[in-house]
Amino acid sequence: MFEENAKIVRKVNPNRPKMSRENRAKQFAPFAALKGFGDTIHWQEKVYVDKKDLSEESLEELDNKFKRIRKNDVITVVYYNKGEYLRVTGMVARIDVTARILQVINTKIRFEDIYDIESI
Predict the structure, then answer these.
(1) Tell me: the pLDDT tens digits for 61-105?
(2) Residue 83: which of 113, 119, 41, 39 has the closest Cα?
(3) pTM for the whole thing?
(4) 63: part of which helix (H) or strand (E)?
(5) Is 61 left (phi over 0), alpha (psi -120 to 50) or beta?
């Protein structure tokens, strides 16, 4: 058995220079053997939904809201994009009726993908 007051003796190689704190800490840094694997796992965790069809009443209400929007208005838009509904809030940068695109800040949203609009 060990005595309570026994000293721990470390053997140090006198020919080897002492390692800096930074280098010692690097030994314990996390290591990712498969780059991008974590991102792929998180991507697969998303729940994808189908695009909802709006009723005639909802489409009319959305159309009325859309008609009141002008460039430089601050709005919140809920829209469908690649299997999920997203929300963006910001200033209207562009409304292109011929291309059917609403641009909020740098986000371009197709008219067909808009689910709801709120003026702020």
Answers:
(1) 999 998 999 999 999 999 999 899 999 999 999 999 999 999 999
(2) 113
(3) 0.62
(4) helix 56-68
(5) alpha
Residue 104 near residue 92 (C-beta atoms within 8 A): yes
Q: Are 63 and 81 in contact (CB under 8 A)?
A: no
Q: Please enumerate in sequence order all residues whose Cβ is within 8 A of that of 32, keeping only pairs 6 or more positions apart, or say none.
A: 38
- Residue 34: pLDDT over 80: no
Residue 111's closest CA among 119, 94, 36?
94
The CA distance from 120 to 114, in Å, is: 17
**Distances in Å between the alpha carbon of 5 and those of 1, 10, 12, 118?**
12, 16, 22, 73
| Residue 42: both structure tokens together | 């998180």
The DSSP result for 9-41, as a single string, is: -----TTSPPPPHHHHHHTTS---SSTTHHHHH
